[in-house]
Amino acid sequence: MGSAQQVSVDVTITPDPSAPNGIRFGMSSNYKQGGQLTFKNPKKGDWFEIDFNIIDDQKTGYVFPDDKKKAMYVKTISSTTDPCPDNWDDPQYWDQFEAKAVTSGNETLKVKNLNETIQLFAFCLWFTKTPKDNGPCIPYDPIGSNQNAGGEFSFWEANMTSVALVTGFIVILAIVGFTLWGR
């Protein structure tokens, strides 16, 4: 049985009059690679428990909505150029990357990533100044990537796979040999 891998992601909110909605977002984490969050399990059966933590040093007042389902939308994508789920009126969810709770005065969103499927996904974090009303909200839409569908093979699993492949090849050769020369 696997275990939870703890991940912390800081989402920085900064006022910026030239940015959409007057707010600029940034994201930092040890799991951020090439502009996206990348998840690869240390071993088979592991999953990720992710805390998205708001860093609001300039006191913009933005937090996550009370409703976890309003705090994050997510969908699978085939390319980083595919659109993110950033239409407030069209909520989208994916059971592999799911919001579980809004905590710490609405400054932390807890997400569980099962990482059972190799998949690129787009997600949208929603921020509001009226969390009890769940909005109005403004979006921040990063990209994520599940890399290994539940971890790497163990040495034993890799060896058993090799044995099965070699055995299958020998059986096929025996059948072909018997068919050609056994008449």
Search tags:
single chain, 183 residues, alpha+beta, 6-stranded mixed beta sheet
Write the layout of secondary structure elements.
Elements: E1 4-15, E2 23-28, E3 32-33, E4 36-39, E5 47-55, H1 68-71, E6 72-77, E7 97-103, E8 108-113, E9 119-128, E10 137-140, E11 143-146, H2 155-181
Parallel strand pairs: 1-5, 4-11
Antiparallel strand pairs: 1-2, 3-4, 5-8, 6-9, 7-8, 9-10, 9-11
Describe, in short, the structure shown.
It contains two helices and eleven strands. With about 180 residues, the protein is of the alpha+beta class. The radius of gyration is 23 Å and the shape is elongated.
The topology string of helices and strands comes to EEEEEHEEEEEEH
Which whole number gives the mean pLDDT?
85
Helix content, binned percent: 10-25%
**Secondary structure category:** alpha+beta
Radius of gyration: 23 Å
Regions with little confidence, pLDDT below 50 for 5+ residues: 151-166
Total number of beta strands: 11
Percent of residues in β-strands: 35-45%
Can you tell me the overall shape? Answer: elongated
| First-to-last CA distance | 52 Å
- Give a short account of the largest sheet: 6 strands, mixed
* Tally of helical runs: 2
Describe what this molecule looks like in 3D.
- Helix content is 17%, strand content 38%.
- It has 183 residues and is α+β, with helices and mostly antiparallel strands.
- The strands form two sheets. Strands 3, 4, 6, 9, 10 and 11 form a six-stranded mixed β-sheet that branches. It has a five-stranded mixed β-sheet with strand order 2-1-5-8-7.
- The model is unreliable at 151-166 (pLDDT under 50).
